[in-house]
Design brief:
This protein has 174 residues and is mainly α. The protein contains seven helices and four strands. Helix 5 (112-134) packs antiparallel against helix 6. The longest helix has 30 residues, at 11-40. The radius of gyration is 41 Å and the shape is elongated. The mean pLDDT is 78.
Length: 174
């Protein structure tokens, strides 16, 4: 049985290359037409991004950020919305910057609860140290007391500092 195959295998690459060249040619012609149409319409060079200061542009900025303080006195970034009337922003800023002494408000802080906690922990530490000295013969009891002492010392180191006092201070308005 004999088979005969008709066709040429050598033209495969050239057909593909010709189609590719034709597409490139079409794209180039479209780009040329678009450039010519742009010149006819009076379009200049394509605009690029550039920095323009607010003074030079004459426009108000879209919003202003400034550093202020929140209720607790911590630093906070505040946003001035340009859509709000300017009078409201000025009044809002005056409220935030208002001095408590000028308004007659008084605030007192109380750290008695924190001081009492720290005092109790220090007393507990002394008692445990005394118990460890008195139980010097019993190793099991000494280990148990040392573990309790380590726990009390850890808690004391966490609480006996200014940061803990500030976080747990009670403020009252008078």
């Amino acid at each position: 049985m004999a088979m005969e195959i008709n066709g040429s295998y050598g033209s495969y690459n050239t057909d593909y290359e010709e189609a590719l060249r034709a597409k490139r040619q079409e794209r180039a012609e479209e780009a040329e037409r678009a450039r010519e149409a742009g010149k006819d319409a009076g379009a200049g060079p394509v605009a690029k991004d550039e920095y323009i200061s607010s003074e030079a542009s004459g426009n108000r900025p879209s919003g202003l950020y400034r550093l202020g303080q929140d209720e607790d006195g911590n630093p906070k970034v505040l946003y001035d919305d340009p859509k709000k009337p300017a009078g409201n922003r000025a009044a809002e800023k005056a409220d935030q910057d208002e001095d408590p002494k000028a308004s007659g408000q008084k605030c007192t802080s109380n750290t008695d609860r924190v001081d009492q906690e720290i005092r109790k922990l220090k007393e507990q530490k002394k008692q445990l140290q005394q118990q460890i000295k008195s139980a010097a013969g019993d190793e099991e009891k000494v280990r148990q007391l040392q573990a309790e002492l380590a726990q009390v010392e850890n808690e004391l180191s966490q609480k006996d500092n200014d940061t803990y006092r500030k976080q747990n201070t009670v403020f009252t308005e008078a």
